[in-house]
Amino acid sequence: MEKTVYIKLNDFVKEEEYLNKLAKEGWRLKRISSTKYYLSDCQPDRYQYKIYFTDRNQKETKKYIDFLKEMNIRYIGRNSEKLYLEKETSDGDFDLFSDNVSKTNYLNRVERYLWSSFLAFSCIMLFTFIPAIKEFPTWTITRKLLFSFGFLAISILVIMQLSRIYKIHKSKKEIEKEQIISE
Known about the structure:
Layout: E1 2-6, H1 12-24, E2 27-32, E3 36-41, E4 47-53, H2 58-70, E5 74-79, E6 82-88, H3 100-132, H4 141-182
Antiparallel strand pairs: 1-3, 2-3, 4-6, 5-6
């Protein structure tokens, strides 16, 4: 049996948790598109998934995928900066990082990406919405509603990005604590 599920999550950590929940229920990710997961039924808890954020060029990404294949990790597909990876549960833990330094480097890359998108959303707010506020009293009700909805939507995106940045920062601090304790 096969099914298609629309991607509703924009937080790759929650998205990864969701895919692993589906795998425990007996669904295997076969491929992805920009808006959908394509799943087929399988033995429950047979597969596990990771979503790896990459900012590498295509040549470096291809090398990384080839390296992962040697570790019995299957590349499913890519959606923007996210690589979708699969490993059989019987092959053991699915950890892409062997040490705290590589985990921290990875989190730094994710954090840089999140900051850049945060800045982009902030610039949209500053350069689009702020100058328009001067004319706001003369607008029709419809235009005011559309403006308010757009401003609210961008504001929510800015807050979501800040929340993700905070989570990444918190994860980095936890890794630093682990490092200090292990030394």
